[in-house]
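Friendly challenge for the regulars: who can give me the structure tokens for this chain first? No prize, just bragging rights.
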Amino acid sequence: MSLFSEDTIYVSEKNSQTAVFEEIYQSLLAKKLVSENFLDNLIEREVNYPTGLDLAPISQELPNIAIPHTESEFVNTTRIVPIKLKKDIPFHNMIQPDEVMNVRFLFMILNQNGEEQSGLLADIMDFINSVEQTELIQFFNEEDPKMIYQFLEKNFKGENLND
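First reply, four minutes later:
Bragging rights claimed.
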């Protein structure tokens, strides 16, 4: 089972968290991957539990990312939804919630089984830490959803995957 699907890889030109969340939500809802309450809960959870992640400790050349997600009751599948942002969007830092950072890439987690949440977070961090830095920088700059998908299929080695 892959955690990615080619039809849920996005490149967004929106310039706010809410606008990006709404754009992706409309698509996921149309595909019946999330419930109608997903958007409100995603926005509320991001306010209370920020998901911005500073990748500078890994490399100054990497963009900051965010890993937005909400409770499993609002999703109908387990999947990671990559979202390349064409514009920097401010997110609060997961580790230091008072700190605001500009983010350029989202890994939105859809998690039907609540227990896997930390495992999926760990898988994303393992991916970032295990891929060659120059390849990772190219990946985060990629704007073709098909190329993003192919790179993830080749390089993402999550523990929740069966090869």
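The chain has five helices and five strands. The longest strand covers residues 79-92. Your move, everyone else.
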